[in-house]
Amino acid sequence: MSDEITPLGSKAGEPGSRPDAGTRREFLIAGAAMATVAAAGAAGAADEPKGHTARDASNPGPDNSGLTALSQHSFSPPRTDHGDVPSFWASFATAHRRIQPGGWTRQVNVRDFPMSKEIAGVNMRLTAGGVRELHWHVASEWALMLSGTARLTALDEEGRGYVNEVAAGDLWYFPGGIPHSIQGLGPDGCEFLLVFDDGDFSEFNTTQLTDWTSHTPKDVLAKNWGVPEAALAGMPKEELYIFQAEEPGPLAAARAAVAGSRGPSQVAFDFKLSTMPPTKATAGGEVRVIDTENFPVADSVAAALVTVRPGGMRELHWHPNSDEWQYYVRGQGRMTLFMNGGNARTMDFRAGDVGYAPQSMGHYVENTGDTDLVFVETFKTDRYRELTLSDWVTHTPPELMLRHLGISRETLAKIPADKPDVVPR
Ligand code: MN
Ligand code: MN
């Protein structure tokens, strides 16, 4: 099955080339101080801090030029940015990858990303046949398939077996304590994002089948299962975690095998986001909202998949009921976070990066590239909630609003009153 499935978009249209940071190093090495000044002002006059000149912003000392180029709005902030806002950017690109036969994993949690107290993320790849070992965890797991196809298994709260398959663009959700496994399918396995409703979650500290059995005496296991102890001699002596296996047989056969006398699970642990129409679509982009309204099992993680067209913007808004943890799927953008008390900061994001906006803190996301920007917003809540600046302005008595904003009645009348979510260029 193709992994180029809407609404995640096509891999073909990655963002174009970026300003060459290496050029700046060459100028520095040549000792051409004025060239440094010119490069520092490359973000354009509109982003230049008020009252600052290019000379004020020059940077003749040592510099990690590659990282600076990727962080251009930290290096040359918009003039409205101000104050002491902690980083709300992290990236899987800088996370340690644990690689084993069958695939790999990496994670971003609160230990590397201090702002992300409510949610942690994991990025995992499984080969065709590669298995993420049977396990569970206290935290609940929300997942977005990024490529390929996978076979899922679980045991629901009534002890009924669940087996199903998901493709790129689909979701799954396993509540805390529900045991499950994931296996990559042909031809090229899968890659997916996992989101956990606990910033302190670690993928390397889950309850795994073989970790538990290898730390339980064989005679206890033998008594527990009513089998001879000698029959257990070949069991693994430590956890498997990720391992290479054969690709599974037909789905129908697997479902029949787990049904037993109780029948198959009636719980829909997966969700076909790949075929869901947008919750809202405008000239600026699309938003798809997934929460317990349409995905009932996901009682602790709500989400919105957002597409912003080139030049478009996810409008100024906030979420009154939860922190927001973001994963950038495609394209490039910048988010500005307003943290009250005059504090605002802008940071840059690309595919594979993670962003964060604390509960009720205002923010907006602009597409800074020439292809669609696609990112997913996740929240530790059962219901997606957002309030927007334009709704606030248009659903307050006009006289009161005009007295605040110093704009004309005609201008106020042009502001959208229907929460577009994504606005065009
Ligand atoms: Mn899991
Ligand atoms: Mn948001």
Explain what the structure shows:
The chain is an alpha+beta fold. The protein has helices at residues 21-30, 33-40, 65-70, 72-75, 209-214, 218-225, 251-259, 389-394, 398-405, 409-414; strands spanning 89-91, 98-100, 103-108, 120-126, 130-136, 141-155, 161-167, 171-174, 180-184, 190-196, 207-208, 242-244, 270-271, 280-282, 285-290, 302-308, 313-318, 324-330, 332-338, 344-350, 353-357, 362-367, 373-379, 387-388, 422-423. The strands form 3 sheets. Strands 2, 3, 4, 5, 6, 7, 8, 9, 10, 11, 12 and 13 form a 12-stranded antiparallel β-sheet that branches. The protein has a 7-stranded antiparallel β-sheet with strand order 1-21-18-23-16-15-14, with no helix packed on it. Strands 17, 19, 20, 22, 24 and 25 form a 6-stranded antiparallel β-sheet that branches. A hairpin with a 2-residue loop joins β14 and β15 (285-290). Bound molecules: manganese (II) ion (MN) (2 copies). One manganese (II) ion binds next to loops.
